[in-house]
User: Which sequence fits this backbone?
């Protein structure tokens, strides 16, 4: 086994060491007055209470799913016990990734509040340090887990048996890694949906009773739901997002590896280079994300926080592009072939470059549609002056419009990357886009930390200048959260196509014919799934929010002295409502993603004489992918735009020659829009990318067992042909042996 394989987990270890150093620095920062620390302790204990309740349920799920995978013949016919172990490892690491981020976020929030008493620069330094621990911890765990498992399974299945990289043994090794990805994505879906339901139930309940009915400020200490609201920022936007990006990261790399196995090449690494490349790109992206964190800083109160974050992001992207050029040319030869498509090392590099450009453009476009001061948000602000209904109409319009440019960019990225290196080009473009996930997640996670910091400042009654600084960070955080979700859904589109291509190859089908009625019917059913999934998630928020509203009203009514600051609300009861509701309501949406591919793949096998079950399942996946990407973009951007339209009034806006401020009728209309947009942008919208990838991974795992292969353990004809070509190439080379792997 070549030494470069062992370099992959080393990148992850470096990231975790950096994470530990950053985390230690955060803990040493001043946590402020006793009252601030008590409020932060309420938030931290509420967040841990939710995680314990969620982990208990997910623990049962993981054990049952692992047993099904381990029992030979239930879901997977070969290597099943090892797939079950791989699944458990993926699930545990996904949950751990979320915990790392949430643990440091609940420590960084109060320290950011205290830092904001000094300067905006110090507050940004602390909050972004918390975000970087999250980003680098998640990506570091993913690289260590995937790299280490690959080394083990490659040794077991390929090296020890003297097999070829393109053979069935390598397919088995990657099938086991698919179990790791399935575990990660399964936990990610439940964590994202459950955390999203929690945070938005608390947020909507707090806003409707506190701001709208009682007329008290957001994050007012008198509001019983305010602690639950701040807990929600951590369990949804930090722990949920951490598990989400962990799963996305792994799925993207895996999809590229699966396609890399089919590539015919004469490289210096025994044919393994196309499989190693996505992991190495992830590793170097991790290192340059660390470098990029040092560029995120400001020196004056008037400096732009958004520009500082953009500088860190762009620096990591540019450095990754440069390094990728040398890595690709070192690993890959000038002649490669995948399913008849001929390309070379430089073609692969340009595909990676395309992926990074697509990711950057997605961030820029999403920022435009969700940032304060831009045309889309300003249009919602103006329409708020004529009431609640026009505010809603404006937000829906912006959300729908915001899908146009990203889809055009995605389409161009897919076509361009394919023209360079075929399906492998599309997959490696997705891997290139996800290479700087650590930096993207650091920028994303800093937002909820800043939001919590503002909440603690409000509840502690700190001077207005402190809240002004935290509001500055929070407004930027809203935009970065939206760009992070846009980035995730864009990666889902490219990754889903790569997983789709891998599924087609392993399932033994060459085309998916829409002229066949069962396939076309499955396409429509697949397009429907993101809608019913979103419906269930949004309805869950509505139900839980109703319980929260009733509880807050009860406390205002039955506990004398709350409004006069003479009695402390019963925060723990609101935390319990959100926890129970989120755990209960997350199960059905999550089950849809896991069960539907199994029902279609196995349930329809041999039912229709005109179409095989892999073809029908392929039609379903195509429908889910297109519909899910559009739904995700629409909901994320509409919610982000509504949120920043509301925040625009807090600074004061000029509408028709009149200044409108917080508390005005226009502001109240914007609060309604923000409340409607909350479950869009934090519950159902971000879940779309996990839904798409999870269904594709389930299909990939069952593909060998529903395939139309003509013989037992036989690969599809396309792969057979390529293996024969590989054998001809190798046997004609007297220097290399067929089983030599260096």
Assistant:
């Amino acid at each position: 086994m070549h030494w470069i394989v062992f370099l992959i987990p080393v990148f992850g270890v470096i990231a975790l060491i950096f994470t530990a150093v950053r985390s230690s620095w955060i803990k040493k920062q001043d946590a402020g007055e006793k009252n601030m620390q008590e409020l932060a302790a309420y938030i931290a204990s509420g967040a841990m209470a939710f995680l314990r309740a969620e982990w208990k349920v997910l623990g049962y799920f993981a054990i049952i799913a692992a047993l099904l995978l381990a029992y030979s013949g239930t879901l997977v016919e070969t290597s099943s016990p090892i797939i079950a172990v791989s699944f458990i490892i993926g699930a545990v690491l996904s949950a751990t990734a979320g915990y790392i981020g949430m643990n440091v976020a609940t420590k960084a929030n109060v320290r950011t509040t205290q830092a904001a008493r000094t300067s905006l620069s110090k507050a940004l330094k602390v909050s972004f340090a918390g975000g970087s621990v999250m980003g680098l911890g998640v990506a570091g765990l993913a690289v260590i887990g995937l790299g280490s498992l690959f080394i083990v399974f490659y040794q077991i299945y390929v090296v020890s048996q003297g097999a070829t990289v393109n053979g069935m043994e390598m397919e088995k090794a990657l099938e086991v890694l698919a179990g790791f990805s399935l575990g990660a994505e399964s936990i990610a879906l439940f964590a994202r949906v459950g955390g999203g339901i929690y945070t938005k139930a608390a947020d909507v309940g707090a806003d409707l009773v506190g701001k709208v009915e009682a007329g008290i400020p957001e994050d007012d200490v008198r509001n019983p739901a305010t602690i639950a609201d701040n807990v929600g920022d951590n369990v949804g936007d930090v722990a949920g997002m951490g598990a989400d990006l962990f799963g996305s990261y792994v799925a993207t790399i895996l999809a590229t590896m699966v396609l890399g196995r089919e590539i015919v090449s004469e490289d210096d690494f025994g044919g393994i280079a196309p499989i190693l490349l996505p992991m190495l790109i992830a590793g170097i992206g991790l290192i340059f994300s660390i470098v990029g964190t040092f560029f995120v800083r400001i020196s004056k109160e008037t400096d732009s926080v958004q520009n500082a974050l953009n500088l860190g992001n762009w620096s990591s992207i540019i450095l990754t592009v440069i390094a990728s050029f040398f890595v690709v040319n070192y690993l890959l030869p000038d002649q490669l072939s995948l399913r008849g498509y001929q390309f070379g090392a430089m073609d692969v590099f340009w595909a990676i470059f395309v992926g990074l450009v697509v990711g950057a453009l997605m961030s820029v476009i999403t920022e435009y549609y969700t940032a304060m001061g831009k045309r889309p948000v300003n249009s919602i602000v103006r329409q708020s002056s004529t009431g609640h209904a026009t505010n809603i109409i404006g937000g829906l319009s912006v959300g729908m419009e915001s899908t146009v440019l990203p889809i055009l960019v995605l389409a161009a990225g897919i076509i361009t990357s394919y023209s360079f290196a075929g399906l492998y080009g599309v997959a490696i473009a997705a891997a290139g886009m996800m290479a700087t996930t650590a930096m993207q997640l650091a920028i994303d996670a800093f937002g909820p930390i800043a939001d919590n910091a503002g909440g603690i400042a409000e509840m502690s009654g700190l001077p207005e200048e402190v809240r002004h600084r935290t509001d500055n960070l929070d407004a930027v955080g809203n935009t970065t959260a939206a760009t992070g979700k846009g980035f995730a859904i864009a990666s889902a589109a490219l990754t889903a196509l790569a997983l789709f291509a891998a599924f087609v190859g392993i399932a033994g089908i060459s085309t998916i014919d829409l002229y066949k009625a069962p396939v076309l019917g499955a396409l429509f059913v697949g397009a429907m799934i993101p809608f019913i999934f979103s419906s269930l998630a949004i309805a869950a928020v509505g139900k839980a929010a109703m319980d929260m509203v009733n509880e807050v009203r009860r406390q205002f009514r039955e506990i004398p002295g709350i409004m006069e600051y003479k009695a402390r609300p019963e925060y723990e009861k609101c935390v319990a409502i959100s926890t129970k509701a989120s755990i209960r309501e997350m199960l059905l949406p999550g089950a849809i993603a896991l069960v539907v591919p199994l029902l279609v793949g196995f349930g329809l096998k041999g039912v229709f004489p005109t179409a095989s079950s892999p073809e029908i399942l392929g039609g379903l996946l195509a429908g889910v992918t297109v519909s899910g990407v559009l739904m995700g973009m629409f909901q994320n951007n509409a919610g982000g735009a509504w949120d920043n339209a509301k925040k625009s009034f807090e600074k004061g806006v000029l509408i028709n020659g009149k200044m409108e401020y917080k508390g005005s009728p226009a502001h109240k209309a914007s609060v309604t829009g923000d409340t409607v947009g909350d479950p869009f942008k934090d519950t159902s919208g971000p879940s779309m990318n996990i839904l798409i990838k999870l269904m594709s991974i389930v299909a990939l795992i069952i593909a060998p067992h529903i395939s139309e292969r003509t013989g037992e353990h036989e690969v599809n004809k396309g792969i057979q042909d390529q293996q024969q070509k590989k054998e001809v190439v190798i046997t004609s080379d007297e220097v290399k042996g067929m089983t030599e792997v260096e």
